[in-house]
Amino acid sequence: xxxxxxxxxxxxxxxxxxxxxxxxxxxxxxxxxxxxxxxxxxxxxxxxxxxxxxxxxxxxxxxxxxxxxxxxxxxxxxxxxxxxxxxxxxxxxxxxxxxxxxxxxxxxxxxxxxxxxxxxxxxxxxxxxxxxxxxxxxxxxxxxxxxxxxxxxxxxxxxxxxxxxxxxxxxxxxxxxxxxxxxxxxxxxxxxxxxxxxxxxxxxxxxxxxxxxxxxxxxxxxxxxxxxxxxxxxxxxxxxxxxxxxxxxxxxxxxxxxxxxxxxxxxxxxxxxxxxxxxxxxxxxxxxxxxxxxxxxxxxxxxxxxxxxxxxxxxxxxxxxxxxxxxxxxxxxxxxxxxxxxxxx
Length: 345
Hints:
The protein is of the alpha/beta class. It folds into 3 domains: 3-62, no CATH class; 79-123; 142-170 and 199-319, Ribonuclease H-like superfamily/Ribonuclease H (Nucleotidyltransferase, domain 5). It contains 12 helices and 5 strands. The chain has helices spanning 6-10, 17-31, 36-43, 47-62, 79-89, 102-109, 114-123, 142-154, 225-238, 260-263, 283-295, 303-319; strands at 160-182, 188-209, 215-220, 243-248, 268-272. The chain has a 5-stranded mixed β-sheet. Strand 4, helix 10 and strand 5 (268-272) form a beta-alpha-beta unit. Helix 2 (17-31) crosses helix 4 and helix 6 packs across helix 7. The model is unreliable at 1-14 and 62-66 (pLDDT under 50).
């Protein structure tokens, strides 16, 4: 027997990868001279199965054929069925429905089962139930303008300080009902109830240093121009006599028509990210870390407790702070795709 003829037999397998592996091992061991009983013992399978595949492969090789016959009932679906399913996704869903699903696709095709529809969708990694969102800048000069900010991320100035400043407004002070819950099976579960009480809000200002990852924060009751300038004065006091590059978003409190504060501080330069490009704000990554690790399950009864909890997290974070790595050198805007076929990647 020639084991090289195994490639043709593998193309017709339809009962799972484990069956293909077992059949290939039977044929390869038979080509090496092992008896059927030894093959069955090695593969821990039935002797009748080994005999069937050894004889079938041997008969086909003697007949000069390259492929083994396909076992089982004939295929119900072919490549044309797959093309019909993908083509139907490009059309509008039935009246009364906002999007397609597996059952609607099967009903529209008629003779195609739900299982086959889901097989095709899984094959092309199409998840109709997933909801995606995007934030795309409409600025035609987005590329050149974003290069200024990305340049600070990739090559922070050695003789200056590059900071990313932003606010996290209206952080709620929530008093959560928590404790132990006895389950019917005798086990106890510690968790939070859906009930909670609000005790006010607080606004957090944060300045993330691009080169080191260190964070400076400030707590304020509101987010206005006066709170922003007060925080910026604290930032300047932390870096006396140094040139400071500050990356900001386009909030009106950051860029008034006549910025007299910026005129009084010639060592400070503002860099604004473009509109609808919040994903360029590196400090947003740190806000996400703060929310997951310090705020998600926090229970407080006063604004002071919330601020103290944030300060404790910032103190612990500074001990292991590291800069975020920006890995994309070229940033270009793209438009959303209108076809399902574009999402099959």
